[in-house]
Amino acid sequence: MPTRDSYPEGTPSWVDLATPDIAGAEKFYSSLFPWEFVDVGNDETPYAMANKEGRTVAGIGSIADENVPSVWTTYFAVDDASGTAEKIKEAGGQILVGPMDAMGTGTFAIAAAPGGEVFGIWEANTHIGSGVVNEHGAVSWNELMTDDVDAALKFYHDVFGHITRTADMGGGFMYSTLGVGDRQIAGVMEKPDPDIPNSWGVYFAVDDAAAALEALKAGGGEVAWGPQETEGVGIMGGGADPYGAYFNVMQSDNLQD
């Protein structure tokens, strides 16, 4: 089991779902992934942890405003949430929420990059983030789709010090990565449709992408693409849960330990 007990600064360390129906979301995602849920919130701030074999995978929180979309949010590990919030503003981004304490488990903030995509930062205390990654039912990759790749690469480099690389994947398709040390930790690509908002997406590892997409559909979600095989990567696909939150699945033999 690829486990994590800490994350280097600038690495995606956590994802959580904002949904209008926590119980309904738990039922849907437990039909796709081997998740068990633990309620860690309160009446004012409902929140549940999705666990796999006793280790945290992701969180699910409630949204009460029907005008707020249901969405998965990617959080980057930071050593100093307040200091990173200042860097975000200096680089042209905005702080939407926080930095604020999360019931003693850590300090978080929600931010928007100059391109408009929303992401979080997480300064760990007792909760380090996802305790298991890169295996069935756990996060395997985070990816930004944007209309300005160069501007996005500069922003994340300025904030987190990411090492950026861009390669031609064939047929003129350019794909960029963000790195921490010698490890590639996230992808950045030009969005394929101008109507898609600039956004961070999450991939969950699965043993069988086709079966996962069928389960997504059977659970009341909508498949948007796939299963599609990418040479050297694996078989992938994506869609939305019954409440409109978009996510992807990835079947691959090349996931990092």
Overview of the structural elements:
With 257 residues, the protein is α+β, with helices and mostly antiparallel strands. It has a domain at 12-124: 2,3-Dihydroxybiphenyl 1,2-Dioxygenase, domain 1. The protein contains four helices and 16 strands. It has helices at 22-30, 81-90, 149-160, 209-218; strands spanning 12-19, 36-39, 47-52, 55-62, 71-77, 94-101, 106-112, 118-124, 139-146, 163-168, 174-180, 183-190, 199-205, 222-230, 234-240, 246-251. The strands form two sheets. The protein has an eight-stranded mixed beta sheet, covered by helices on one side. Strands 10-11-12-9-13-16-15-14 form an eight-stranded mixed beta sheet, with helices on one face. Strand 3 (47-52) and strand 4 form a beta hairpin. The chain starts with 11 loop residues before the first strand and ends in a 6-residue tail after the last strand. The mean pLDDT is 94.
Q: Ends: how far apart?
A: 8 Å
For the largest sheet, list the strands in their spatial order.
2-3-4-1-5-8-7-6
Mean pLDDT: 94
Give a count of the beta strands, DSSP E runs of length 2 or more: 16
CATH topology of the domain at 12-124: 2,3-Dihydroxybiphenyl 1,2-Dioxygenase, domain 1
The CATH homologous superfamily of the domain at 12-124 is termed 2,3-Dihydroxybiphenyl 1,2-Dioxygenase, domain 1
The major beta sheet can be summarized as:
8 strands, mixed
